[in-house]
Specification:
about 55 residues; mainly beta; four-stranded mixed beta sheet; about 0% helix; about 30% strand; globular; binds zinc ion
Length: about 55
């Protein structure tokens, strides 16, 4: 059974470990390819410029 209906919680910061990119360097939520990047606690935080989904990679 596939989990295609899994909802993205935009208030949450995901980690690459729990949610690897479906498409490399693209947002899992909206498929946008542009991000704001910053460093947070030594991790690289990637935030989608379109929908705001956050993931540390
Ligand atoms: Zn997005």
């Amino acid at each position: 059974m596939t989990d295609a209906t899994k909802e993205i919680d935009l208030s949450k910061t995901y980690t690459y470990k729990e949610m690897p990119d479906i498409q490399y360097a693209r947002c899992d939520n909206c498929d946008y390819a542009h991000f704001n990047s910053s460093r947070k606690n030594g991790l690289f935080l990637r935030e989608c410029r379109n929908c705001g989904m956050k993931k540390t990679i």
